[in-house]
Amino acid sequence: MDKKIKKNNDTTLLEHILLGLIPFTEENTALVFKPQKFFYELEKKLSNTSFETIKNTFYRAKKQGYLQSVENQNLIITNKGKVKLFKHIKKKNTEKWDGFFRILFFDVPEKERRKRDLLRGRLAELGFVQYQLSAWVCPYDRTEEIDLLILEYKLEPYVHYLLAKTISGEDRLRMIFKLKEVNKYSRS
User: How much is the average pLDDT of 147-165?
Assistant: First the structure.
């Protein structure tokens, strides 16, 4: 199990390393400009954790498929790594609502229960709320993240994604998401 870092709301050691590879994150800036400082700060932030443990976590991330080596031994984050970081890289609440609701329906068979449970957890991390048992709603565009989830968990035949101008219970959803009225003429 990954050790927790005291900053960044329960960021694990593995997540901190992966965040170092996401452009424009605080961790990425340290890793790009001063790699030794990146690892030194990790070691300092974690009590009773050695540099060797940090290095082993980095290599385990590659072995478990969160990172992949490419040309010249550069590393990239895989889809699996991006899915692991959803709760850290989701868009801020500064998004403007465009007047449309994104509705995700899924019917994942019982034999794929683990994937179904993972999907529900990731949807909540992305800001979706459960509308019905297998229907989730979000007013913001999460298409890229949803596509990643569907590919990573191999759920193509079970998941459907809709864009809706109106939905029953819209007043309740507006309250949940703290949405302001959108000019109805802009919803064309």
Answer: 93
The domain made up of 101-186 is a member of CATH 3.30.70: yes
Q: Do domains 13-88 and 101-186 have the same CATH topology?
A: no
> What is the Rg, in whole angstroms, of the alpha carbon atoms belonging to the chain?
19
Cα separation, 51 vs 40, in Å, equals: 8
Is pLDDT above 50 for 116? yes
C-alpha–C-alpha distance, residues 58 and 55, integer Å? 5
Question: Can you give the residue ranges of every domain in the chain?
Answer: 13-88, 101-186
Q: Which of 3, 25, 22 is nearest to 14 (CA)?
A: 3
Termini Cα distance of the chain: 49
CATH of region 13-88: 1.10.10
